[in-house]
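User: Structure with pyridoxal-5'-phosphate, tokens only please.
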Amino acid sequence: MATIPTKSRVRELPSDVNISGRNFGPEELKNLTKVLESGTLNCTKGTWVTQFESDFAQSYGAPYARCTTSGTAAIHAAIAAIDPEPGDEIITTPITDMGALTPIIYQTAIPVFADVDPYTYNVTAETIAAQITSRTRAIVVTHLFGNPCDMDPIMELARSKGLPVIEDAAQAFYTEYKGRRAGTIGDIGCFSLQQGKHMTTGEGGIVTVNNDMYTRRTRLFIDKAWGYGDKNPDHYFLALNYRMTELCGAVACAQLQKVEKVVGARVRNADLMTSLIADLDGVYAPALTPDSKHVYWKYCLRIDPAQITGGVDAFARALKERGIFSAPRYIQKPAFACEIFRDQVTFGKSGFPFRGPHRQGLPPVEYNIEDYPGTVEALNTICVLPWNEFYTDEDVRYIAEAVVETARQLRV
Ligand SMILES: *Cc1c(COP(=O)(O)O)cnc(C)c1O
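Assistant:
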């Protein structure tokens, strides 16, 4: 997305792709030096990853946390801990990162998509309930952009059906819901430490386990299911190596000390932004889940196409001319419209687990866009602004001014 600044007033905004918008400093460097000097880069022999795991668990009040190589690996460990049978269904959202979906298929389960609320972009107890069948094995909820799902009714539904809940909190570090941290409300929480997240090791992930039933399988899955510390250790089941390196662990320890400040700065910036665009018609600040704390991984504008000429695409184009980049329609299309789902491109030509002997007598797995009015509306109206803890008040005023001017220019 190269930019041609057309106006002299174009301002360079801090960005999470490089040091302008990332907070690495002497703390990370000091830890990294110690790791290298120790000569132990592997977490099974080192101390940094273990230290981070206990620090993170403690900061979250979670009983258990385990590091992985990515957020995708964290989700994979969560699904593997639940251990679905081939063809079991796992309910999730069509607006998420593909890394939250492919692990379901690798664990031989079929992703079933619940519609989202068109204002919060999150799944709800109602949309999840509509997808529950006798084959449902688990529910994955994503706290999209850092705003929590309305968890009370979701947990009530899940408990009434005996279904475990996995929270994808990759975009939701220190997000709160009714005084509780997102990621500690369901049975398992998943986090990503990828470059663009609130805290980062470049690549990395964390799983928190709140239900003892899943602790052992989560731990084993990340390390080839080898029974470290057991009397007669063995490789107990099919599993991978998703262990984090000590280098990442050392950076993660330093990042954890900073994340609260990162979240605080993002919330302050976002609140200023919201106050500056409060009077607009047709362009709206992010919807907030009541009684909760949004941590603004991104700042999402909602563009009402009935009030803004040309809708979200025209809006993003006009914003760009004012030097502000955005992602209209976020992921462009619901996840189930991607080739992997549309053409069921999985294991060889088998189409497994969408097709196969376990599906005998069952109708084909199909995803119909007509069943997802909330998702369609969400993607048609969302304009995602990058957001950063290093934005100054002037940066925010600059962004807000562009948004206000664009809204006036395109008002129907
Ligand atoms: C980033 C992200 C992931 C995947 O994390 P990786 O570290 O990139 O594998 C999963 N889910 C959501 C919601 C994400 O934002």
